[in-house]
TrEMBL record, chain A:
Domain of life: Bacteria
Classification via PANTHER family: DIPEPTIDE TRANSPORT ATP-BINDING PROTEIN DPPD (PTHR43297:SF2), OLIGOPEPTIDE TRANSPORT ATP-BINDING PROTEIN APPD (PTHR43297)
Record keywords: ATP-binding, Cell membrane, Membrane, Nucleotide-binding, Transport
Annotated localization: Cell inner membrane
InterPro entries listed in its UniProt record: AAA+_ATPase, ABC_Ni/Peptide_Import, ABC_transporter-like_ATP-bd, ABC_transporter-like_CS, Oligopep_ABC_C, P-loop_NTPase
Any Pfam family the entry gives: ABC_tran
Name recorded for this polypeptide: ABC transporter ATP-binding protein
UniProt-listed CDD domains: ABC_NikE_OppD_transporters
Membrane topology type: Peripheral membrane protein
GO molecular function: ATP binding
Organism annotation: Ruegeria spongiae
Gene3D superfamilies: P-loop containing nucleotide triphosphate hydrolases
From TrEMBL, chain B:
Pfam families linked: ABC_tran, oligo_HPY
Name of the protein: ABC transporter ATP-binding protein
Source organism per UniProt: Ruegeria spongiae
GO molecular function annotation: ATP binding
Entry annotated with the keyword Nucleotide-binding: yes
Sequence similarity: Belongs to the ABC transporter superfamily.
Keywords: ATP-binding, Nucleotide-binding, Transport
């Protein structure tokens, strides 16, 4: 399959009064056509900033200081604003955790969706309206003609997120970046949204980056998983490999701390401590202070190595699933 | 069977939006405007044995938090009784009432909103036991340190303010505040939902340790099935103000009876399922302002028929440990 997106050595730093925050610090990954990549991390790991960087949505004091983002072969890192505007909402679309980030509260749904089409294509209003209606139908919204006349506040949270997804798919983009799109939703609604997103990527061949903190969601959805910690991808590989045989101690710990049936009533594995302060990052491996396998070697940053079909940043991969 | 520590008997909670002056005038002039009533909790019966962890599961708007607040005494019940140790809390007075109220404490979801930002940690934790005379003013400081130690907080940080702590630490402060009055029963309302995965594990472990050390009983309210499956002995499911099923955790997860329980279990994402096809149940939870007649789940239910729209199914006991509210549970 064709590569839609190649990100290499991406660094996005924020130059604040208190110091430089290296929110994204050397991230590499590739997303192919029709593929879903799960980008997993805890709050502050830089997963959302990675998504914003691809769309060129980094505001001062932040900027992309290094690295390349190639979309369909063309370099788009630090591309001029008009070029990015042609891509946004057209070839690359984003779905946010809060659908009200996408929707304008004072405009009707039809106004917003038609605008999203006509911004990139000169089509008659009627055609744009029909495409909007069909898009709402595709994401499972009942009576789409009526819904088009509604304002966002007249819809439930799940319905708004569907509208945001329909809007993202309007121009048949090559890539969709979904940033925690189901985190605020209930279990049954989450399943509906994932179902719609899954169906649409299969039908249209759109590639997707699904950013989340929830390993269980990407386990059922993604082809590949990248686990981020403190601005770096620490482990990257096929979903089955990463979930069933994690190698990085952080991934091992994350998976161990997810409650599930086979550990019922037992103590959960817990990663001690908390994510490091982004202004005062530990030297070397950022995870070392919380890592049980850490030795003085971890004072030097581990290089990216290929182990068992995976890309890994660790001096001491937990081969054989050396269970905690 | 041991006598329950806490028993909820036919508890309902209704919220009514009263008409303002303009509304009353409009009504007088023939407008169809009227008072709106939300049945947040609708005739719920539950009992919790000493030392038990009861998981209360449901989606947003199902009334699980309201029920938790009624149990904790934050809201008064519109109908029904809450029995603590066999006596109706509402019927108690004076010292007895105070003892019963102190014995039930609550831990909230948002560790940012539930702590007063202008109070030091030692005052947040120490205020209630001092006011209630559990410790003398001169001993408060030592007592606060002891409670902080119990929940894994460094006692040397007691002079700090809440904003100087991380989310997980703040949740520990909330737990310490509840434990400071020596409760027997904790209502945990989505107490770990706002935390990161690795921090969630730390707090779940803390809850389990405290249960063992202090012999606590929990009402553990959550939307997250995997957390409840891990921590609870028994689970009750709520849908639009009513309990639809209750069962011991293992039996419920092995063989759910109510169609709603089945749907929830099938749709919760799990680590062991790969590249699955998500096949969700249709529709959304209806507005509690205008719930469907009969069984509240009928518009989304694959088994729904005429009688489901006509009659409300009561919670019926189907085995010594299980109860389900469905006309057609035998067909599931």
């Amino acid at each position: 399959m064709r590569d839609v997106l190649q990100v290499s050595a991406l660094r996005t730093h924020f130059f604040t009064h208190a110091g430089v925050v290296k929110a994204v610090d050397g991230v590499d990954f590739t997303v192919r056509k029709g593929e879903v990549m799960g980008l997993v991390g805890e709050s502050g790991s830089g997963k959302s900033i990675t998504g914003f960087s691809i769309l060129g949505l980094i505001d001062p004091p932040g900027r992309i200081v290094d690295g390349s983002i190639r979309f369909n072969g063309a370099e788009i890192a630090n591309a001029p604003e008009p070029a990015l505007q042609k891509l946004r909402g057209n070839r690359i679309a984003m779905i946010f955790q809060d659908p009200m980030m996408t929707l304008n509260p004072v405009l009707r749904i039809d106004t917003q969706m038609i605008e999203a089409i006509q911004a990139h294509e000169s089509v008659p209003r009627q055609t744009a309206w029909e495409r909007s209606r069909d898009a709402l139908g595709l994401v499972g919204i009942p009576s789409p003609e009526e819904r088009l006349r509604a304002y966002p506040h007249q819809l439930s949270g799940g319905m708004r997120q569907r509208v945001a997804i329909a809007t993202a798919f309007l121009n048949r983009p090559d890539l969709i970046i979904a940033d925690e799109p189901t985190t605020a939703l209930d279990v049954t609604i989450q399943a509906q949204i994932i179902h719609e997103a899954q169906k649409l990527t299969r039908q249209t061949g759109t590639a997707m980056i699904w950013i989340t903190h929830d390993l269980a969601v990407v386990a059922g959805l993604a082809d590949h998983i990248s686990v981020m910690y403190a601005g770096r991808i620490v482990e990257q590989g096929a979903t089955d490999d990463v979930i069933d045989r994690p190698l990085h101690p952080y991934t091992v710990g994350l998976l161990g701390s997810v409650p599930s049936a086979n550990k019922r009533g037992q103590r959960l594995y817990q990663i001690e401590g908390m994510t490091p302060n982004m202004l005062a990052m530990p030297k070397g491996c950022a995870f070392a202070p919380r890592c049980r396998a850490a030795t003085p070697d971890c004072q030097t940053a581990p290089p990216i190595t290929e182990v068992d079909g995976r890309r890994l940043r660790c001096h001491y991969p937990q081969v054989q699933g050396a269970a905690p | 069977m041991t006598a329950p520590l806490l028993e909820i008997r036919g508890v309902s909670k209704r919220f009514t939006k009263r008409l303002d002056v303009a509304g009353k005038i409009a009504q007088h002039l023939g407008s169809k405007i009227r008072e709106e009533t939300v049945h947040a909790v609708d005739a719920v019966d539950l009992s919790i044995a000493p030392g038990e962890v009861l998981g209360l599961v449901g989606e947003s708007g199902c009334g699980k938090s309201t029920l938790g607040r009624v149990v904790a005494g934050i809201h008064g019940a519109s109908d029904g009784q809450i029995l603590y140790d066999g006596t109706d809390i509402a019927a108690l007075t004076g010292a007895e009432k105070r003892a019963a109220t102190l014995a039930i404490q609550m831990i909230f979801q948002d560790p940012f909103a539930s702590l007063n930002p202008r109070m030091r940690v030692e005052d947040i934790i120490g205020e209630a036991p001092r006011v209630h005379g559990l410790v003398s003013t001169s001993d408060t400081s030592d007592y606060v340190e002891e409670v902080m130690g119990k929940v894994g907080l460094d006692p040397s940080l007691k002079r700090r303010y809440p904003h100087q702590f991380s989310g997980g630490q703040r949740q520990r402060i909330g737990i310490a505040r509840a434990l400071a009055v020596k409760p027997k029963f904790l209502v945990c309302d989505e107490a770990i939902a706002a935390l990161d995965v690795s921090i969630q594990a730390q707090v779940i472990n803390l809850f389990m340790d405290l249960r063992q050390k202090l012999g606590l009983t929990y009402l553990f309210i959550s939307h997250d099935l995997s957390v409840v499956e891990h921590i609870a002995d028994r689970v009750a499911l709520m849908y639009l103000g009513r309990i639809v099923e209750s069962a011991p955790t293992e039996e419920l997860f092995a063989a759910p009876k109510h169609p709603y329980t089945k749907a929830l279990l099938a749709e919760a994402p799990r680590l062991d399922q790969r590249k699955r096809d998500f096949a969700p149940i249709e529709g959304e939870i209806p507005s509690p302002l205008d719930p469907p007649p009969g069984c509240h789940f009928n518009p989304r239910c694959p088994l729904a028929r005429e009688d489901c729209r006509a009659r409300r199914p009561m919670l019926e006991t189907i085995s010594p440990t299980r109860a389900v509210a469905c006309h057609h549970w035998t067909e599931t």
